[in-house]
Amino acid sequence: MAETIFKKIIDGRIPCHRVYEDEQVLAFLDIQPLSRGHTLVIPKEPAVTLDELSDDAAAALGRVLPRLCRAVIKATGTRDYNVLQNNGAGAHQAVAHVHFHIIPKSSPAEGLGVGWPAGELSKETGEELSARIRAAL
């Protein structure tokens, strides 16, 4: 895995506004925020996409994400927020290191804007695809 800006932040070579840190997870304010309180949550374990992350690192993220969401809500005074996680350049991942965004949404103009071009899932496709996913587990 190539060294990323997040690795440099983890190592302390680039400063950040840390909001949380433990042995496996680091959270800090985004320097290009979509809204006030936009926070990045990263594992210290190097992995480009979520599927490459170890179960232990994923569990550490899962334990801390709700706590960080509660803190961002309390600090910003907003109840609405998005948790965003992208995997791969085609899915808009800009830094090749797993990371979650906690993005407060205090007004329609602030925060993340999302388009959702919903499709339809046929019974046949659902049965076939769910069977393939179960088999891959």
Describe this structure in words.
- The chain is an alpha+beta fold.
- It has a single domain, classed as HIT family, subunit A (2-Layer Sandwich).
- 31% of the residues lie in helices and 17% in strands.
- It has a 5-stranded antiparallel beta sheet with strand order 1-2-3-5-4, with helices on one face.
- Strand 1 (18-21) and strand 2 form a beta hairpin.
- The longest helix is centred in the middle third of the chain and has 22 residues, at 55-76.
- The chain is globular and about 50 Å long.
- It starts with a helix and ends with a helix.
- The model has no long low-confidence stretch (mean pLDDT 95).
Average pLDDT: 95
- What is the helix content? 25-40%
Q: What characteristic shape results from the CA principal axes? A: globular
CATH architecture: 2-Layer Sandwich
C-alpha-based Rg, rounded: 17 Å
Number of strands: 5
Number of helices, where a helix is a run of at least 4 consecutive DSSP H or I residues = 3
Q: List low-pLDDT spans.
A: none
**Amount of beta strand:** 15-25%
In whole angstroms, the N-to-C terminal distance is: 25 Å
Annotated CATH topology: HIT family, subunit A
**Secondary-structure element order, N to C:** HEEEHEEH
